[in-house]
Every structure is written in C-alpha cells, then in structure tokens.
C-alpha cells in the first residue's frame, strides 16, 4: 500500500514531465475576450515557426487550423481522437501538427506550441488535458490563449516549473450591443441571426419554426459529426448560399469563425454535470455567456458589429446582469493520473481491470487542492468497462479511454467500441 500511495502522490504534477523541465520555455499568455485577435497573434507565431503544435478543445478548431496552415503553404497534419490526416501521405509526418488537446504529445519537441481556450482547465471532466499541456509540452515557446481569468492560476502553476509568464492583453475588435428588446416571436428573425439553445429537441423545434418563416437554417450542436458541423458553418458563412440563419448550441462558443450579426439566447439555463457526475440545470455563467455572445459581429466578416438579446422578454434583464459581472478568477486546474502511473499501479495490482485501477488510484491519491482538483472519472471508467473484453496493451486501452465521450451518448459509445475493436 505504501508503494501505491507514493505512485498516486499528485502534489507536484510539474515533475511528471522531465523532458519539459529540461527546457527553458518562454511562456506567453494571450488574454482577451472573444473576437480580440489573441488567437490570431498566437497562430502567426505557430505558422512562422520551423515546427509547431496547436492544441484545441474541438476537432472543428483543429481542422480549421489544419486547413489554414496548409492553405498558407505550411505543411500541417491533423491528429484527433477520430482521425489522423497527413498533409503529405507519401512523405511522412509534418513539422506542424493541429490536434485536439487530449491528443497532444508531451514527448515530441516543437519550436512553438499553442494552447487554445485555456479556461477549459477548470472543466470537471476534461480540465486535466489543459493542465498536462501547460506543464508538459516540450516547446521553446508556449502560447496560451483564453480568458484573463486564468492568468493568476497559470502563474501559480509555473512557479513549480521555474518559468516566467509574459502576459499580452487584447481588446475586442468590434462593438457588441445588448438589445433592450427580446425577440419574442420567430416572426422577428432576420438574416445573420443565430438562435442558441442547450437542448437538441429545442434546436430542431426552433429550426422548424424559423423555416416556416421562409428562412433556411444551418444547425450546429455537439452530437453532429465534425464534418457535418464544418459543412453547416461553411454554408452559413457563405453570403451567396441560401442558408441565412443559424440554430446552435454553445458548441459555437469555442472559437468557431462564424459570420453572425445577432445572437439570440432561447434560454439562459444550461445543463451541466456536477462533481458527482450528475446532470443539473444552472444559469449561464458570465464566462459562458460572454463566449457565446461574443460570436456576434466578428472582425473581418460581413457583420463588423454585433448584437445580442434573448427570446423571452423576462430574460433580457437577466442577460444584462450576467454580462455586466466580472468573470470569476479560475482557482484550480484539473488533474488525471497519467498512463505511466496507471501502469505502475497495474504492476502492483496485476489482476485489476483498468476501471478498478483508476478507481483505486483516485481513492488514495493526494492532491494540492489549493491549486488542483481531481477530474471526474466516471466516463473514463465506463469506457474502460466497455472495452475490457478487447485484448490490447494497458497503455493503448488508457489512451482510448481518455477520449472526451459521455457515457450518456449510447450511439457515440457504441461507435467508440467499434473503433476500439478495429484497433486490435
């Protein structure tokens, strides 16, 4: 048991990455609201470097970077949990990689690394992946993009690495106006509108109502295949295309480039998952509302000023209150046991399943709770149980289970099992 306690001591996560600790990394935090140019600046460093890695929260964003880099003449590969696409299939891997954050390597050295949407480090399920890239990426220059609410936390994390943090702040490039009047009726929909809802049934009901008024709708929500989402976004952004209204979930809040004039919140209540893994409804936070509302009036699109309102009249004052509040500082970063730690556990507990190993690990681990928290492991355990019967190495099994898949999405889970079985 003493050996297990030593292995599960998570109080100094910076020490898990010895290769990164050998480097004297330059770390730059690009802090600002949506549509402020912060990610653009970081990406220019990425594109001009001899080698680079971009880490984003969504395959959509990684795909955007993949296409942008290659269109600029910078050979770039795409690596996500679903696919690996080489810029030059005949010539091997490229010096630049665009990936989802869980797929980022902490072993390969790059000149420049970009971590997007750093505020996700507080996420109860996926936050560990951002912590891992901040502490573990082997890059000469690390660019971190996102809300200013994460600055102090990142500074504290870098005290353990002995690295300084340079902060660059940005202001929004276009105006965003909160309207005094709610939409109230779909009769008031106009070109360039985006109606945001947090329920798939609402999404389809809204799109039907909008189409009854003679508009063509694009639909974007998390459960759609990435290729479909990209196609929907492309059609909506094209002024010559018949699609002129977007109906979406908060999936649009993660950096997607969309030509939106007005954001309309159909509801201000969003489903969330608490620390016990239970689903509950809660009022949108200031951070969430700003991320979504900020998609209106994007610089460089046909709408260079944005508007935001609600569908229900009673929600307008609530939205104004939410957007007027300062964003709370992020106080802790997510953690998750590494594959190496789980392999050491397995050495001492050779008959335990991966699900058992992770559960035992979390039950006895020690965490510096002034700076870190243990991410929820219920989805990981569910995926581990789902694939337990398929014979593969423990580290490979672990890697598959790190995929950000909810156990409450049966179809996605069944596809996960199918893909995993093909990997035998």
Write a structural description.
With about 425 residues, the protein is α/β, with parallel strands linked by helices. The chain has 15 helices and 18 strands. The chain has helices at about 1-5, 20, 40-50, 60-70, 125-135, 150-160, 200-210, 225-235, 285-295, 315-325, 340-350, 355-365, 380-385, 395-400, 410-420; strands at about 25-30, 50-55, 75-80, 85, 95-100, 110-115, 140-145, 165-170, 175-180, 195, 215-220, 245-250, 260-265, 270-275, 280-285, 305-310, 335, 370-375. Strands 4-3-5-2-6-7-1-8 form an 8-stranded mixed beta sheet, sandwiched between helices. Strands 9-16-13-10-12-11 form a 6-stranded parallel beta sheet, sandwiched between helices. It has a two-stranded antiparallel ribbon with strand order 14-15. Helix 9 (about 285-295) packs across helix 10 (about 315-325) and helix 11 (about 340-350) crosses helix 14. The longest helix has 13 residues, at about 60-70. The protein is globular. The mean pLDDT is about 90.
Which secondary structure elements does this structure contain, and how are they paired or packed?
Blueprint: H1 2-7, H2 18-21, E1 26-31, H3 38-48, E2 52-56, H4 59-71, E3 76-79, E4 84-85, E5 96-100, E6 109-115, H5 127-136, E7 138-146, H6 151-159, E8 165-169, E9 175-178, E10 193-196, H7 200-212, E11 216-220, H8 226-237, E12 243-248, E13 262-265, E14 269-273, E15 279-283, H9 286-293, E16 305-310, H10 316-324, E17 333-335, H11 339-348, H12 354-364, E18 372-374, H13 378-386, H14 394-401, H15 410-422
Parallel strand pairs: 1-7, 1-8, 2-5, 2-6, 3-5, 6-7, 9-16, 10-12, 10-13, 11-12, 13-16, 17-18
Antiparallel strand pairs: 3-4, 14-15
Helix pairs in contact: 9-10, 11-14, 12-13, 13-14
